[in-house]
Write a sequence for this structure.
């Protein structure tokens, strides 16, 4: 099987999206004969039509992106717009998505997931599904007891996809949890993220005192 | 009331949306309000690159030196922002979406519980109501509108605002004025 990965993260090779995709790819390549090509939107921004050509010739495509203001980043939307001439003409290319967000709950990604499904149908593609994962900001500084779980599920999804050409529903379900946080979990998770992730970076930058600045105040 | 109309129509050769925005702006002024229009086409607004310096290094300011900061400044100074764009492949133009992505310095990185879901804390005391003015594609159907509206409702919560109206340019300007008066 031949797979084209499009990493739509504005952070490119330093992205949380890449960290997740790498594990999927590792699993995918375990099936003998499978090959994989990775494209970064950040590197292709000035030559999107070339990438669109590649897309139209591809057999299987997975597009990964972080949630930006409840949808795809504007730069990913630029790529979607370039595909307009291919609408209805895709030769049953299989297409799937990886949508990750910093928020701990998957509920944030549900509408853009619906959008991606509709977009796939509009192109004439076979929609594989979307891999949804919350809690992905700062994967490099999160404790490994958390990230190991995500990574192993991405790896297993890749293994299964490499064999069957499908996203395994059970694994998708595991990654998509929690859909919402219980009040109890929220009380734990919020200070963990606010202090562990954000305050720690502000302190390092000597910016904690300016944290609530309002520089654009009218 | 201060209204800001953000024109995210990327097409130089299809200006029906621009004409509509002009008429709407005039009608808002005639009703005794202030109205200002920003045309994004031709402005320099780079996509957000996710550096988060606006949260952790220089709180509240984007490090990218282009027209994006000015749009954010006008946005936060408004009572009601009308975001206008044709639907392109079922969603807002990338021109408008890139601009909206650049507004994250307006909120704070800290999270809090907002009606049972985690969202960002406010940086400012007051945020404008946001509304959407759209143009249909030849193939736009009810499902597309429901998906886009679902995303807009979420966006309004996330930028600590509330959703005003979602209308298309076939709606008479008068009807939009009525919708505005409710908010």
């Amino acid at each position: 099987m031949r797979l084209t990965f499009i990493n739509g993260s504005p952070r490119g090779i330093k992205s949380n999206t890449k960290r997740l995709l790498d594990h999927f790819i590792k699993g995918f390549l375990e099936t003998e004969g499978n090959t994989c090509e990775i494209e970064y939107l950040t590197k292709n921004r000035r030559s999107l039509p070339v990438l669109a050509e590649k897309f139209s010739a591809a057999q299987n495509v997975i597009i990964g992106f972080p949630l930006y203001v409840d949808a795809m980043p504007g730069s990913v939307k630029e790529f979607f717009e370039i595909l307009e001439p291919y609408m209805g003409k895709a030769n049953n290319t299989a297409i799937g998505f990886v949508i990750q967000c910093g928020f701990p709950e998957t509920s944030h990604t549900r509408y853009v997931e619906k959008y991606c499904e509709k977009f796939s149908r509009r192109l004439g593609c076979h929609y594989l599904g979307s891999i949804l994962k919350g809690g992905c900001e700062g994967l490099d500084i999160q404790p490994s007891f958390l990230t190991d779980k995500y990574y192993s599920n991405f790896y297993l999804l890749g293994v299964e996809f490499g064999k069957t050409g499908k996203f395994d529903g059970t694994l998708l379900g595991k990654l998509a949890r929690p859909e919402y946080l219980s009040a109890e979990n929220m009380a734990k998770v919020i200070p963990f993220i606010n202090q562990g992730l954000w305050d720690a970076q502000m302190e390092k930058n000597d910016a904690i005192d300016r944290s609530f600045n309002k520089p654009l105040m009218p | 009331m201060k209204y800001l109309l953000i024109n995210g129509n990327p097409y130089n050769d299809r200006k029906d949306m621009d004409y509509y925005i002009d008429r709407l702006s005039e009608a808002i002024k005639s009703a005794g309000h202030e109205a200002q229009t920003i045309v994004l086409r031709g402005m320099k607004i780079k996509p957000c690159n996710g550096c988060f310096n606006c949260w952790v290094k220089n709180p509240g300011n984007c490090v990218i030196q282009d027209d994006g900061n000015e749009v954010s400044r006008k946005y936060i100074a408004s009572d009601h922002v009308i975001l206008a764009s044709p639907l392109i492949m079922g969603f807002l133009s990338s021109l408008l979406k890139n601009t909206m992505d650049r507004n994250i310095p307006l909120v704070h990185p800290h999270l809090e519980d907002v009606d049972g879901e985690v969202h960002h804390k406010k940086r400012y005391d007051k945020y404008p109501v946001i509304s959407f003015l759209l143009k249909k594609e030849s193939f736009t159907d009810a499902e597309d509108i429901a998906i886009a509206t679902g995303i807009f409702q979420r966006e309004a919560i996330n930028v600590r605002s509330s959703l005003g109206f979602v209308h298309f340019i076939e709606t008479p300007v008068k009807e939009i004025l009525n919708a505005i008066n409710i908010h």
In short: The two ends of chain A are 56 Å apart (CA to CA). The mean pLDDT of chain A is 95. Chain A has eight helices and five strands. Strands of chain A lie at 2-7, 35-40, 60-66, 94-100, 126-133.
